[in-house]
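Run folding on both entries below.
>entry_1
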Amino acid sequence: MTEQTTGTAVVTGASSGIGLQYAEQLAKRGFDLFLVARRTDRLSELATRLQARYGNKVTKVVADLSKAGDVQRVVEVIRTEPAITMVVNNAGIMLMGPATDATLDQIDTLLRVNIDALVHISLAALIRFKAKGGGTLVNIGSVLGFAGYPGTSAYSATKAFVLSFTRGLQTEHADSTVKIQLVAPAGTATEGWDSSNVDSSIIMSAEDCVAASLKSLDMGEEVALPSVENLALLASYIKASTTLMGSAQTGTPASRYRG
């Protein structure tokens, strides 16, 4: 088990919840930081506190990742700052309730933040890391990416994309020095849960979630499941997915569809 080498980390969605904890815990490990969030006041307060507590260099990047121009500014930071060794793609928004109750603007914003921004930032990070010979990309998904439930269809679909996209990137970079991790938390005490009716006993603190995820990264796990005790369940899921994919490669309709 090897703790991640320090350097400079970019954390998106850093002003609260999981992103704030990544900022706090990476600063404690000795990382300098580029903190990305849209709320200037919270970002400034966090940067001041981390600098005072840990003595790290903290750079604020005020950006709304639902806006293409702001995403591009974050991409440019990653492209041009040579000290960056880690990117944590945490920014995301939740949209709960029946999909037909949401407006198209709400759905579009969900897709722009949870998918488009994550893809643009991931690719910028990987291109940079490959060129410099190493680096770490962490994409925050959700256990809802494995299975959608009523009231979560749109949100779960975005996290299913994060799961599939990140796992695909891992296969593409399996022989490289670049590390790619998917983090799939279950219910976590973030602002997205403030008005929910979820049983509080199954909600993990953001602090514990990030501590477990970083420990998972130290251990070399490609997929961090902070609240899952039986990791064999993940192996079974991957095996079933691979088997299903393989069984589909026949070129003919299944017998139940013939005759």
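>entry_2
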Amino acid sequence: MNPALELHDVSKRFGATHVLRGVDLHVAQGERHALIGPNGAGKSTLFDLISGRVRPDGGRIVAQGVDITGRSPPRVARRLARSFQTTSVFGGLSVLDNLRCAALGAAGSRLIDRWWPSRQVEDRARAMLDAIGLANRADEPAARLAYAEQRALDLGIALATDAPLILLDEPTAGMNRAEAARALALIRAITEGRTLLVIEHDMDAVFGLADRISVLVRGRVIATGTPAEIRVHADVQAAYLGGVIP
């Protein structure tokens, strides 16, 4: 079986600044893989390259056995879905309509007038609505949701696309500890059996969620391993300056 995601010697620079320097990364099918590292390490840029928002200067990106290097976001979207650090919901649409939009894309239709007759779209949207715990807010504009609820809707939108690979960029950013704990429980439950690559600064979240962790420092992956292996890795400890992983 092909890995869900492979990066081979991927590099990116902006002007004179080398942001990524020969990144190699392998994410197995069905794995929850975390990408951590200090601020400015290049984590979000790496997500931009994978999702097609930015073209790499070198290297190859392969998703589900298909080379997607430099492909546009619409062409990449069938193979992966991404959430961002800030919420990206359609505030003027209802919660359910946000999910219908995502499910419509998964159904492969470009005709909006096929939205309502499609039982496939409706079933997927409503199933995700239940999964993210927002069934009682279905008809409310997404803009009225609390921040943590909008983040849950972001996750639902990504999953409703039915993409086999999910990229989550700091899904608990801006949440208090209780909200973050609920968000992680939700992610753990509804990504079961899916492949997940997540950027996260909350180390408790990372070590509680990930099967494997890769550490990006100054544009290079310096270590990949299980949470137990990463916690005691000397280079990783040095990168976090305190000698001990937070």
